[in-house]
Amino acid sequence: MTMCRPSRRTASSSLAAKQSAHSPCRTASFSRCAVASLAPSLPRVEMTDEMFARAVFKNAGRPRSASPKQMISLRLPPEVIARWKATGPGWQTRMAKRLEKTPLPRAESEA
């Protein structure tokens, strides 16, 4: 069995570790080496249909939005963007809320 030692990772020690002829675990973290050294002694278990039926699978990431936002390209004068940015973080969200509240202008053909 190979003995693993935790190592401090610095520029000089990582270079020395790459050049050393010690065990491959020398450059890895201690917990990884410990697991690797225990792996041969752990029993291997086949997954049965019953085990899969009892398993709980979790969805990773953020939940899907009921009304996802759409990406558009909008050309605005630099002064307008500078004024909105000057209001601080969250300026894009505030701009979107202002646009939601503002009534739509009538088309010229309707007037």
Produce the secondary structure layout.
Blueprint: H1 11-19, H2 30-38, H3 49-54, H4 78-85, H5 91-101
Verbal overview:
This protein is mainly alpha-helical and 111 residues long. Among the domains are: 11-38, no CATH class; 74-101, no CATH class. Helices cover 39% and strands 0% of the residues. The protein is built from five helices and no strands. The chain has helices at residues 11-19, 30-38, 49-54, 78-85, 91-101. The longest helix is centred in the last third of the chain and has 11 residues, at 91-101. The protein is elongated, with a radius of gyration of 29 Å. The relative contact order is 0.07. Residues 10-23 have low confidence and may be disordered.
Compose a concise summary of this entry.
The protein has helices spanning 11-19, 30-38, 49-54, 78-85, 91-101. With 111 residues, the protein is mostly helical. The model is unreliable at 10-23 (pLDDT under 50).
What keyword list fits this structure?
111 residues, mainly alpha, elongated
